[in-house]
Amino acid sequence: MFGALLVAGIVHGLIIGLAALAVTLVFGIARFPNAAAGDTMTAGAYAGLLAHQASGSLALAGGAAVAASGAVSLLGYLLVFRPLARRPVASLLVAAIGVAFVIRAVLGLIFGHQQQVFQVPLAWPIEFMGLRIPPMDITLATVAACALAAAFGVLHLTSIGRQMRAVADDPDLARVSGIRPLRVMIALWLLAGAAAGIAGLMLGVKTVVSPEMGWEGLLTAFAAAILGGIGSPAGAVLAGLLLGIAQEVSTPYVGFTYKIALAFVVMLAVLLVRPRGLFGRMEGVR
Amino acid sequence: MEAYLVAIAIIGAIYVLLTLGLTLQYGLTGLVNFGHVGFFAIGAYASAIVSMQGVPLVASFAFAALLAALAAWPIGLVALRLRDDYFAVVTLGFGETVRLAITSEKWLTNGVQGIPGIPRTFAGLGVGLPGALATLAAITLVCVAAALALRRITRSPFGRVIEAIRDNEEALKALGKDPARFKIQVLALGAALAGIAGAFYAHYITYLSPDQFIPLVTFYVWMAMIMGGVGRVSGAVVGALLLMLFLEGTRFLRDIAPDAISGVAMASLRLGAVGLALILFTLFRPQGLVGDYTRR
Hints:
heterodimer; A: mainly alpha; ABC transporter involved in vitamin B12 uptake, BtuC; two-stranded antiparallel sheet; 11 helices; B: mainly alpha; L-leucine transmembrane transporter activity (chain A); transmembrane (chain A)
């Protein structure tokens, strides 16, 4: 029982980790908690669903999810967040909620509100050290691992990734050093969107696809981003795993509905006790 | 027709109360409260549950305000240590957690089945127009009192301090004021207003369930405040009325063409319209329709 919950927790945690990665990148570099991240995930899930229905290939679905979420994310930046860059953070927060609502409304209008599922073939669970692991979980975990590797590759091995981290550390210094902010921001929103897209696709395969799915996962993603330390991609992923496992393992005790509340409690505790999270920079959250 | 007008007037007045609470918190003090619906829900459920135990409505309304204000207390304690953006996330989480608690704690709230048969305000006058008119009179009175109190606050030393918190907290600290105390008071006051609004809502609708308290309600109130003009008492009233016009207008649209637009499609359209309004107002008219033009 515990082992099965642990496996479920790891897969769930990878989904949270990817969503938290999207949140923490934007929070660390564009400096506001993007409430539209959840609905960007939903966009990816629907795009993946369409591609999967058309082709039956999970790889193609992944590509579609990344493309759609990346596009939605970039569009949000260019149309809304970029013009608001010099405004107080409250404006950005309200606008992000607005973007989230618009994305969810459009998806609701196109696809309707009934829940849809990925038609994936049933397969026997694989027995491993007394644990029964569904093959789909292994596939999803691999997908997530690849996506994470790609994201970290971009962040640490490419020039644009280094520039992004430089902007995250000190925007003014980065500017003075000749880093072009627009390019960095475009790359950032594309990367964050792509991570959200994969997270949405995985969540959709694992549960059901509905217009509300992303919004419902948003709070957990925020909690993981804060627990990991804002601006720390590795922290976000680790915190996502921790939260995912904690949520699954605690479900038998606290019940299904309090899963999200658990994330809220963790978030509060972190903010009060150690506001920089596990790996965050020393920066004032207060 | 009269019954319909009275009904939207009552709901409109409930939104005026909610908007006044948010105006105090965000408009005047700069606290980004994304969990307003949580205080609204606490007030509604508190008054409903207590009144169904036989407590007179006057006392249950007071209890609703008190409980909502008390719920704001811990949030305030957290708030005074957090930056705006973190505070927004925390309050968003608070609102959702309240709804989850209402869904889960069936022994108290009857879960998703909801609480039916909540006693009406002025039940002695019957369920028809006289009772509704009396309710409207009562809530209008409360709105006027709250608006006057807010206006009074903006001209008092207390008001100057909270506006200074919004404009420059560091400078205020340098002057030897303690922003923390003021923030908690403002949160509790705004929450109490939301709690009273919730009590009116509960005893007017007479049925409560968790899905009436989704985050969208919070952003209806934000939309009202932003449309009306942030930080102005008159703006809160204008905004809430515009909001009612919008909500009822979209309902009319569906009544005229029920075949063209299904119920769920209309829900999506409404959501999209709210989102678009939030985006467009922040982008192009952050001071609202009757707001202060000298400031952005």
